[in-house]
Amino acid sequence: MDFTKIILGGLSVDLKKALIISLALVVILSMGINTVNAEEEVTLEVLAPEYSHRTEGFWNDTVQAFTEEYPHINVNVNISSWDGYAQLVSTRVVTGEEPDILNTSQYLEYLEDGLLLDLNEYVSDDFMDKFVPGFLEDGRREDRQYSVPFATSVRALFYNSKMFEEAGIESSPETWGELRETAEKLDESIDNIYPFAYEMSDFEGYRFLAYFFWGAGGGWQQDGEWVVNSEENIEALEFLTELTNDGLTNPAPASTDRDEQQQVFGAERTGMLITASFFPTILNEINPELEFGVGPIPSKEGVEPSTLGVADTIMAFESTEYPEEVALFLEFLYEDDNYYRFCSDEGMLPGTISVGEMMAADDPLLAEFIEVQQDVRMEPSDPDYRIVQTLTAERAADAILGRMTPKEALDAAQDDIMEELY
Amino acid sequence: MKYKKSLFRQIIDSRKKYIWLLPSFLIISIFALYPIFETFLTSFQQVSRSGLPIGWAGISNYLDVFRIGKGIEVFRNTFFWTASCLVLTHLISIIIALVLNKSFPGRKIVRTLVLIPWASSQVVTALTWRWIYNYDYGYLNLLFRQIGLIEENVFWLGGIYSSWIAVIVVGVFVSIPFTAFVLLAGLQSIPDELYEAARVDGAGAWYRFKKISIPLLKPVITISVIINAMYTFNSFHIIYVVTGGGPAGATDIAVTYMHRLAFEMMNMGRAAAMVVVIFFILTVFSVIYIRLMSGERA
After folding, report:
1. ipTM, interface predicted TM-score of the complex
2. Entry pTM
3. Which of A306, A108, A107 is nearest to A219 (CA)?
4. A371 contacts: CB under 8 Å, gap ≥ 6
5. Which of A223, B55, B142, B165 has the fewest other C-beta atoms within 10 Å?
6. What is the mean pLDDT of residues B187-211?
7. Residues of chain B contacting A94 with CB distance shorter than 8 Å
8. H or E stretch covering A271
9. Class of residue B251 by CB neighbours under 10 A (exposed 0-12, middle 13-18, buried 19+)
10. Contact present, A391 and A413 (Cβ < 8 Å)
11. What is the SS3 assignment for A44?
């Protein structure tokens, strides 16, 4: 059977010649492309979330400056909304489409699965010295460093100064007793406000639990094991629940989230709200006239106060083809002038000491926050923490809704956690 | 001389029908069959938190769906959600169908209005309802206060019972157009002579409804129930957008819980097992539907 006749039968001889010539061209052209590759045109992909409308401008300008210095390195930055961001990243990882460089808040599972690049192997010796040591812990395993802090914040109690004045409150409450007193005074003096706002949803409910667990002397773990139903934690949840039942908080904490409560505070409906150090930047946009004050997160009488530090980080994936170029980009990104722009644009506290000094000189409030950075308490650096936080916050919400007592709720959470993890 | 077809042409001619089917088959394979197959595989695997498979898990994912966490609870919630929506949708739709079956001024406008919830994107509808239920700025509170039904704003999405009512209202709202029109079509296919004969014999309106309309509508109602059941059971967007499964996971149905399992608890294996179980339940619905449809033709 003459197959060429079957396939090409009917085609004129000229067409056959044309086919042979095009095949030859393809071969020659592909050789040509190979010679271009020999010049090492590098393309890096960065995936980053959108902190605000200024984020894109920051990345574009930084990349432009970087490319001027290193013309053979192209950097594509993909910016995506925070909404569904974790899923986007997760999908890309699962399908093998991970970027070279990633900026995100949740990444410990990638670390544990060995997907991240050990930055210590490629960056210059003194690069890691730039960072506030406390923030490097999260991404460190022995002498390998998998992530560096990019956008950090500390948490504090923000209060409406005018309301405090009206209710005759002199200073920010530092103990739980004072917190309750302050809330009661606000409630008596002013109508239609929420003296103390918080949330217990799956957005940041677990962080509000952290403020109070730690405030009672409890926490998430004991001796390296997950224990959420300790005496101290139960006391903390009881305090919160009582506060809610007595009408001293926003009415349905389980159905709201921190971002919404920030807006409500901005609408001058809230007396006190514990939130992050980037809140002043947000307030400046929604209500610049609002006079506010900042105080420490209250803790139980006799317990050392602690403040939560949170860091979004930057990391690189092992699968990157250009680790040296990744390192070059990171070092450029963290150069003082460049990094300073990001932090001041977004109101984030810097992860590096030198930019911290620059920003402290700008603004006394920031200076206070930056000082606190030295002693922050971080959440457990363990991918299981995600599950612990989700389950505990859900059960805590049950307690706040009155479906269970705080003790029952935390015991149930502990059972849930044991079931899920072991 | 007889023109002998080349072997190639012979093969193509006899298989032409399959070639025409090829594009559709490819699309279905890529976008439906392959994901189903992958999910099925994943449900038997142990999957790391990053989403990468790291071994086989036998049927432990399936056992875990019912043993651990809220598996049983959310299936219970799903049946409650589906049943409530079905009953309420059909009760309201039959009334609407009966009304639309009569001729009255403005009938065309009413028919168009009834169709609107079906025409709009369900996600947009759900978002709009979420704002209607909003405590501070929602229209529902405003309206109820103005007509004196309530004195203070109600946190509709804050309590468990009110949240359920809230989502069921939305579920019914989006299902009414389809159901009402299916029932209307059914009503219109009932010959007028039957009603005439009954009226002549002295039968009242309710009696006519009970003894003529309902029995003759039964096949239509059955099909409407099955189709609605399939859509409602799997209705992710209404609950996800309006309550997010909250408060405290109280309005979680199977699909929303499964979404959380996959993307908040990073447990892909168990989420996949749950998907397969849901798929199986919906397949049972489909089989019933197909049986009924073929039964109809006979």
Report:
1. 0.77
2. 0.81
3. A306
4. A360
5. A223
6. 85
7. 50-52
8. strand A270-276
9. buried
10. yes
11. strand
